[in-house]
Write a structure and sequence with these properties.
- This protein has 325 residues and is α/β, with parallel strands linked by helices.
- The protein has helices at 21-29, 112-119, 142-156, 158-161, 175-185, 224-231, 237-242, 270-281, 310-320; strands spanning 2-6, 34-40, 57-60, 70-73, 79-85, 92-96, 123-127, 168-173, 208-211, 256-261, 286-291.
- The chain is built from nine helices and eleven strands.
- The longest helix is centred in the middle third of the chain and has 15 residues, at 142-156.
- It starts with a strand and ends in a 5-residue tail after the last helix.
């Protein structure tokens, strides 16, 4: 386990430019050809929607902005986007975007991070998911239902897609980090009744990557909108603990990579510290990077267009734990 408390850093979630990062980012900028396919997560209507009355919406995250920079609200038909590399190496990463459990900031056209993943020969999957305040019977577990279904769907089609079902990792960002953390720690429990043969498959990922994640629902570090969307305005302590990802870490949780910025004003960096400490207490292989500055949210480059090393750090971690060579 390693803690990297970096100082004097200017880029978002990052160190100053390192030689280690250059090859990775260069590959991302000149990615190999890949193909995109979008599929429904569920063969019919998702479970537990009898009292759901919302209408799904797709909006631009910035009015008048990039038409592919979208957000999904009141999700009723969650989907999975697959970006297949030209030469798959058998590994896969399920990506879970954020949005504060109010929306899902995701595009069916994909983006730079899943393109970078595919450029390494890793098949990238980007997930849209249902939201807990929309009346689903599963309540705070509805997004976890979709995450469990997504990893099962990937495993069920592993042979067809040229994947190793034992080499599927998950990454999550912000509130999506909370979904990913719960997927990585709640695989021992079933959140829905099986709907087809895929649902007989396990849901434990081979590794997890959590980026500026929502983790805890306990005071004082719970993320406000996520807490309200998950549990309403007056949750009990027991309800908070039940959906706090750092609570009840299993002894066989997967290796976990965590990254955050100390000046994050949206999701307190303490969320990442709490997750790392809980994993460390259970002797789970884990790595934490906390950087002096960077705020909330990042991509392959920071807000000033500075290339960042997190892809190389994550790549090294996943290779070290056998996801790919």
């Amino acid at each position: 386990m390693a803690i990297d408390l970096a100082t004097d850093r200017r880029s978002l979630l990052g160190l100053s430019a390192l030689a280690l990062a250059a090859p990775t980012l260069a590959r991302a900028q000149a990615s190999s050809p890949s193909t995109i396919e979008v599929m429904n997560l569920w063969p019919g209507k998702p479970p537990g929607g009898e009292k759901v009355t919302v209408t799904e919406q797709v909006i631009l995250r910035k009015p008048g902005g990039d038409p592919n920079d979208t957000a999904f609200l009141n999700v009723t038909k969650p989907w999975l986007m697959m970006r297949r590399p030209a030469k798959p190496n058998g590994a896969a990463i399920l990506m879970i975007p954020g949005g504060g459990y109010i929306r899902v900031a995701v595009s069916k056209a994909g983006g730079p991070i899943d393109a970078w993943i595919a450029d390494q020969g890793v098949t990238a999957f980007v997930m849209d998911y249902r939201l807990p305040a929309d009346g689903w019977a599963a309540g705070p577990d509805v997004s976890l239902q979709d995450a469990q279904r997504a990893i099962r769907l990937i495993r069920a089609n592993a042979g067809k897609w040229g994947l190793d079902p034992e080499r599927i990792a998950v990454t999550g960002f912000s509130a999506g980090g909370h979904v990913a953390a719960r997927l990585a720690t709640r695989f021992g429990g079933e959140t829905y009744a099986p709907v087809d043969a895929a649902d007989r498959l396990p849901t434990r990922p081979a590794a997890a990557g959590l980026f500026y994640p929502v983790v805890t629902m306990t005071a004082p570090h719970a993320h406000g909108s996520s807490l309200k969307s998950l549990l309403g305005t007056s949750p009990t302590d027991a309800q908070r603990l039940a959906v706090s990802a750092e609570h009840d870490i299993p002894a066989d949780a997967p290796p976990t990579f965590i990254a955050a910025a100390a000046d994050d004003k949206v999701v307190a960096m303490e969320n990442s510290l709490m997750m790392f400490q809980a994993l460390r207490a259970r002797k789970i292989a884990s790595e934490l990077h906390v950087f002096e500055s960077g705020g909330h949210g990042f991509g392959l480059t920071g807000p000033a267009g500075v290339a960042m090393p997190w892809p190389a750090l994550l790549e090294a971690f996943l290779k070290r734990h056998g996801l790919y060579a």
